[in-house]
Specification:
The chain contains 9 helices and no strands. The longest helix has 17 residues, at 8-24. It has helices at 2-6, 8-24, 82-86, 103-116, 118-121, 130-135, 145-149, 152-161, 175-191. With 199 residues, it is an all-alpha fold. The N and C termini lie far apart (86 Å). Bound molecules: heme C (HEC). Heme C binds at residues 116-117, 119-121, 131, 139-140, 142, 147, 155, 158-159, 163-166, 169, 181, 185.
């Protein structure tokens, strides 16, 4: 015991050293704690910031989300090309795809369709995607004659603004990607459904 007492500084040094090694090796790191960790080194792990739709004591409106300054247009958001953005001609009729339909556009459309449309309309557009597999709810079969005959601009309009039970995708899908999806839907319709996918 006296031996230990005599060596207490050495013992303490070894204990602290071991702790440092354990923490460094991540043994303590992965453990769950209820309280936020003590921040010894004020680095960029902790960045004070506003979260969207939170309360702010700084802005007069009391909200962290601020409206755009009135009568201003964000860069690249002028939307001069009304045909591209609405899918309609200046006279109001639906247009054909205003983008050059080539392999690259169709490939892009296929990629985006897989993300945004497939869950409901199915890989080949027969209206039986994951939604149907899980809940037996069918979305529209994109191979219906009526939809084969409908103009590109109308499909663009449905993607943009939604229709009935289907919500609009104007926010998650940028305008050119929406037209790419239209091109891909046309491609799917032209290919038709394989025997097993028909309804
Ligand atoms: C959450 C499920 C869901 C997603 C995702 C979805 N749709 Fe739909 N879609 C529907 C349903 C349901 C209808 C039928 C709407 C109705 O008639 O009430 C529909 C209808 C349509 C129609 C037919 C419109 C008409 O004239 O009857 C088209 C075209 C269409 N969707 C294209 C798309 C495209 C392209 C995407 C991907 C960008 C997409 N949908 C994503 C559920 C979905």
């Amino acid at each position: 015991m006296t031996q230990l007492r005599r060596n207490r500084w050495r013992v303490a040094a070894v204990a602290v050293g071991t702790l440092v090694v354990l923490v460094g090796a991540g043994v303590v790191r992965g453990l769950p704690f209820r309280r936020p960790p003590i921040h010894v080194n004020p680095n960029m792990d902790d960045q004070p910031k506003y979260r969207p739709q939170a309360v702010s004591r700084f802005f007069a409106s009391g909200s962290t989300s601020q409206l755009p300054v009135q009568s201003t247009i964000a860069r690249g958001e002028l939307r001069e090309d009304s045909v591209l953005f609405s899918g309609r001609s200046p006279f109001g009729s639906f247009v054909s795809n205003p983008l050059p339909v080539d392999a690259a556009l169709i490939a892009r459309g296929r990629d985006r369709f897989g993300i945004y449309c497939r869950p409901c309309h199915g890989e080949f557009g027969n209206g039986r995607g994951t939604l149907y597999e899980r809940s037996k709810l069918e979305a529209r079969n994109l191979h219906e004659d009526r939809l084969k005959e409908t103009p590109d601009g109308r499909i663009f309009d449905v993607i943009t603004n939604g229709l009935g039970l289907m919500q609009g995708y104007r926010f998650p899908i940028p305008v050119r990607d929406r037209w790419a999806i239209v091109a891909y839907v046309r491609e799917l319709q032209a290919q038709g459904l394989a025997e097993g996918d028909r309804r």
